[in-house]
Amino acid sequence: QVQLVESGGGLVQAGGSLTLSCAASGRTFTTMGWFRQAPGKEREFVTAIVWSGTYYADSVKGRFTISRDNAKNTVYLQMNSLKIEDTAVYYCAAGQYGLSRHEGAYDYWGQGTQVTVSS
Question: Is the pLDDT confidence value at 51 over 80?
Fold first, then answer.
C-alpha cells in the first residue's frame, strides 16, 4: 500500500525557516513534488523533483529548496525567508511522469501539513 506521510509543519515567524519531510512507502516514484493550499484559495504548485532535476514556482524560487534521499524514499522541502503569504497546508505528491506543475501528473498525495507564518 502506497503512503506519503508529511511532517515538519508548524508555526514560524516571518523571515524564519522550516523544513518539511515526506516519507513515501510502498514504492519509489520518478517525480515527487510539493503543493500548497492557502485558506480560501485553490491548491497551487510549489516545487517538484525528478531524481536530481528540480522545478520551482516563481513565488518560491530562491527561497525554497527541494531535495530527495532515494535511500530513504523521502523528499524534503527546505523553506527559508518565509513570508506570511507562505501560510498554507502543504501537500506532498508523487507520480511517475516528469517534472510537472499540474496536479493530474501526480498519482498519490499526502494528508497535508500546516505551515503558519506569523508577523
Answer: no
